[in-house]
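Handout, page 2. Input:
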Amino acid sequence: MAGSEPVGTAAELAAHAHHAPSFAVTLVFTAVLVGMVLTLALEERLHAKKSVITGIYAVLSLGLGHATGILPFGPVVNVFGEELSLPVYIQGIDWGVIAIILGSSLFVDVTSRSGLFTFIAIKLTKASGGDPFRLLVAYGLMTVVFSALLNNVTAMIIVGSLTAVSLEKLDARDKLLGFLLIEGLLTNVGGLLTLISSVPNIIVGAAAGISFVTFFEVAAGYVVVATTLTLLLGAKRYGVASLREEAAKAKARERVMSFDERDGIESQGFFVVAAVMLVAFIVSIAASSVTGYPLGMGFVAMAFGLVMLLRFKGTADRFYRTLDWDLLLFFAFLFIVINVMEHAAVLTLIGEGLGAIIALNDAAEGAGTAATLVSAAGFSAVTDNIPLAAMLARILEGMVPLSDDRLWWSVIFGANLGGNLTPIGSASTVVAVTLMHKHGLAMSFGAFVRAAAAFALMQIALAVLYVLFAVPLVG
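Output:
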């Protein structure tokens, strides 16, 4: 791409510098973003993969960005003061997320060959007594806890893999779509539990001066209620009912007790190593998020994935072939599009609009607070919630003293829960849909929106009520 070569002088760098876009240019890029979302909604009818659709829009966005002069070309200066030549589209990709998905996928795929996941899934299935609803609750709670302690992508990959094994053993594959959907939605609920559970939490929490303990005290009540309602609604919607009759319960218990959790274990040594590595993986991912490990969770995931590959070092390429490249490329292209939208001031435009919504508090107490939460959720469904949260945090910092301190919580809840409105709203919902496709279950963009709408709207409505009436009592 023109302008990607290094330039040596300040004058040359200035010549390549991008300029602030006009309002007309911002509107053009807004139309491109809307077009991408609409095209993804027609994914099934177009018979096109998500990666192809976002790839086309990434190319279009970059081309328009270069033509309108909004993109910054030239060298990048690293922490050592060295100038690096990196194409602008490479800089726009969140490589941390790509590394988490790639590393976690490799780790889970290799670890599953040890029989460990089958072992855990059957143990969990036995503990449920073969009762579908109890199994749903167990996996739902596991999803929330893993999302809070690890990250929602890793949580979805691990829990989704276990779920598929359990339901396969129970001959209840018809329930898999419902289980995966509910787990995908619960990853974003679990992401609200602690200050470090998601990046928007960290950004807004730091700006608002919210401590780790205070965050947990405020968010925990919502997470408990939202998780319970999501599980109940999901169970009703997908026919996941508890066994009522004693005869049915006895038959189910007898059946699950006949399962042998050691069936898939071919090497006891590899099984033990995999078990130790899984515990170490979970602890390391959690620790890296708590301590702010400089290399990040992506490095940790990649390191564990590669260590596990040593077991199959001579045939590692077969694991590379089974990676979901459509998922990885989808995220890479989506990050490029969103990055261009940032340079085109599309997110700034959204932030300014939300600033006007926040001001509604001057007219009616709580009106702007509620409207901010709903609006933040809506925009998070189609854009990256991290820059959006950062933008809103800056707006709120500039409005001190705030008309309502609950506005901070409106941004936090909206930025997290908006990911449940669309399959591109969060990385975990994309992974959930990918797992559905992997197991031969149909789930298009439109089908996801229709299936998730009731859950997402319930969670957002509950969040509005919680922020307006519960947060002042505990915050």
